[in-house]
């Protein structure tokens, strides 16, 4: 299994995806095809945390008046399943590894995974 969960309207996602050969990867645009509970549970198994998958930059946080500090793991899971913008993206998922988000360290780890040494 090799899947990438991304948002097509996100310039950062498109920029990151363009760096890699994703020919044999399943590309999932999460607005058109939201993540399933089963997929979220797979991600959780690898990260050990729904919080690690949660985007603190989602506009839905302010719109819903959410207090991030008061959220439980159960809350994070429910929110992740409820609205696509809560997923930190992109998420690259294989049988053995997961790469979550667009921070510099994650993108560098992806480059190593794909064998790009620039």
UniProtKB/TrEMBL annotation:
Species assigned in the record: Chryseobacterium oncorhynchi
Name this protein carries in UniProt: Arsenate reductase family protein
Xref: PROSITE patterns: ARSC
InterPro entries: Arsenate_reductase-like (IPR006660), Thioredoxin-like_sf (IPR036249)
Gene3D superfamilies, per the entry: Glutaredoxin
Similarity remark: Belongs to the ArsC family.
Pfam families linked: ArsC (PF03960)
Domain of life according to the entry: Bacteria
């Amino acid at each position: 299994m090799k899947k990438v969960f991304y948002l097509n309207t996100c310039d950062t996602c498109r920029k990151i995806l363009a760096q890699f050969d994703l020919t044999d990867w399943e590309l999932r645009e999460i607005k058109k095809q939201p993540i399933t509970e089963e997929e979220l549970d797979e991600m959780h198994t690898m990260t050990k945390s729904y919080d690690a998958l949660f985007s603190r930059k989602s506009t839905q946080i302010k719109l819903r008046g959410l207090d991030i500090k008061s959220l439980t793991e159960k809350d994070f899971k429910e929110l992740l399943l409820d609205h696509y913008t809560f997923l930190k993206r992109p998420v690259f998922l294989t049988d053995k590894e997961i790469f979550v988000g667009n921070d510099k360290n994650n993108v560098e780890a992806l480059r190593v995974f794909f064998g790009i040494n620039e």
